[in-house]
Amino acid sequence: MSSNGTSEREAPSGGKTAHPISTGTWPRTRPTPNGTQRLAAHAREDPELTKAAFFDVDGTLLDSVDLHALSWHEAMVKFGHDVSFEQARGQIGKGGDKLIPQLLSEEAQRDHGNEMEEWRSNRFKSQYLPLVRPFSAVPDLLRRVRDAGVRIAVASSAKKDELAKYLEIAGIGDLVDVTTSSDDVQESKPAPDIFEAVLKKLGVEGHDAVAIGDTPYDAEAARKAQIAIVGVLCGGFTGSSLRQAGCVQVYPGPAALLACFRDSLLAR
To answer: Which of 28, 60, 68, 162 has its CA at 20 to 30 Å from residue 119's CA atom?
Structure first.
């Protein structure tokens, strides 16, 4: 933890100028409904291609993944299920509607799935939310995005009340144009609903936007919504898993993305 209250959990750059861990080919490619790739026809012609940036929160802007995993692990154990911290952590990035079916049987879900999710939410907000800190350079990155004329959305699988607190913790409430949470949609990530809701709110098409996230579930949701995505490693998933899921570029975290902004999809 730094002296200014930010988390410094970001892959080190060795004291050198930051560069992306990996980058896709430019012009960017877009997923088509059948899973193949096509080039954005106007990628080189339109200097204002990126009109909106959609940021995930947990593990992308805030160092909160372990805390979420711990609260899910504790909830599972409390209700009699042998689910390890590591198993829970591997599912963070999904909303409860997607996470619980991965870890519990259908019978267990019927018996106490909703009760357990409520217990988990209360546990997280009372015990762990006060410990959440932003990664370094988060407000600076979002200001740089706004200075480039790109509108900013926060698109998270978190609950709406948690998301409001997250914006306060990160110090970015005045930098965000719109937000979408799991409460606003039928299905959370990796379904595309959250990203599609943001597209509708901003009145832009998928090829006009770039998503930034830390999990394969972010990448899968973005791909389904026809949005290019930049991955960050600070949430704990590997670069290879992010690339395999569809991330065009992968950076250590927000500070590295800021340092490489001119070479990132956000500036194109």
So the answer is: 60
From the list 9, 40, 46, 8, the residue with the least C-alpha distance to 26 is 40
158 vs 46, 100, 231, 256, 259, CA distance in Å? 34, 14, 19, 25, 28
**Predicted confidence (pLDDT) per residue in 205-241, tens digit:** 999 999 999 999 999 999 999 999 999 999 999 999 9
Class for domain 22-63+133-267, per CATH? Answer: alpha beta
Which phi and psi (to 5°) does residue 230 adopt? -105, 130
* Residue 215 to residue 21: CA distance in whole angstroms: 15
Within 13 Å of residue 44, how many CA atoms lie on the same side as its CB? Answer: 4
Instruction: Identify the pLDDT of residue 33.
Output: 38
Question: Which single residue is written with the structure tokens 């930010």?
Answer: 6
| Owner of token pair 């409390």 | 78
pLDDT at 45 over 80: no
Closest CA to 159 of 188, 116, 132: 188
More confident site: 111 or 26: 111
CATH for 65-131 (2.60.40, 1.10.287, 1.10.10, 1.10.150):
1.10.150
Closest CA to 77 of 34, 45, 39, 123: 123
Task: State pTM to two decimals.
Answer: 0.85
pLDDT at 23 over 90: no
CA nearest to 175, candidates 131, 212, 138: 138
